[in-house]
Amino acid sequence: MFEKVLFPTDFSDVATKALQYVKELRQAGTREVTVLHVVDQANLDLLGTYSAVGDLVNLEREILKRASDEVGFVANELRQCGFTVNERVMQGSPVRLILRLAEEENPSLIVVGSHGKSNLEEMLMGSVSEKVVRKARHPVLVIKR
Ligand code: ATP
Ligand code: MN
To answer: Which of 37, 41, 54, 59 is 20 to 30 A from 89, alpha carbon to alpha carbon?
Structure first.
C-alpha cells in the first residue's frame, strides 16, 4: 500500500523522529524511499546580505555539500533497513520543491515531521508541513514532535 515514500527532511529532531517511522514502514510494504532536503533559498539570500559575493559562492558550495552528506547519512540508514533509496538535494523554496517532486515521483505516501528546525511551542504545525498537508495530492503522514 505504501510502496513508495517521499521523505522530506530538514535534519531536525522532529524530522529524525519521523525517520524512525519511515523505517517502520518496511513492515507496511514500503520498498522505495526518496530522501529530500531543500536548501532554503531565503536563507541563502539572507546570508548574501552579510557576505561578499566570493564568500557567498564558497558558502553556498559548502552548504550544498553538507546537505548532500546529511542526505547520504539518512539514505544509508534506510538502505541498511533494506529500502531502495534515492537521494535528492535541491535549492529553492522547500514547500514548492517538495510539492514539485511529489508531482514528479507520485509517491504512495509523504512522511514529514509536524515541526522542524524552528519548532515553536505555540504552533500546531510548521509552515512547511502545513502547506504540504494542505496542497499535496498525496496522503501525508505527519509525525508529531
Ligand atoms: P517554520 O519553518 O514554519 O518556522 P518549523 O521549522 O518548526 O516551522 P517546518 O519547517 O514546517 O517546521 O518543518 C516540518 C517538517 O517539514 C520537517 O520535520 C521536515 O519533514 C519538513 N521540512 C521542513 N523544512 C524542510 C526542508 N528545507 N527540506 C526538506 N524538508 C523540510
Ligand atoms: Mn522550518
So the answer is: 54
User: 119: Cβ below 6 Å to ligand 1?
Assistant: yes
Residue 117 in contact with ligand 1 by CB distance below 6 A: yes
Cβ burial 100-123 (10 Å sphere, 16+ → b, else e): ebbeebebbbbbbbbbbeeeeeee
Per-residue pLDDT of the chain (145 residues; tens, 9 = 90+): 899 999 999 999 999 999 999 999 999 999 999 999 999 999 999 998 888 888 899 999 999 999 999 999 999 999 999 999 999 999 999 999 999 999 999 999 999 999 999 999 999 999 999 999 999 999 999 999 9
Domains of the chain, start order? 4-143 (3.40.50.620)
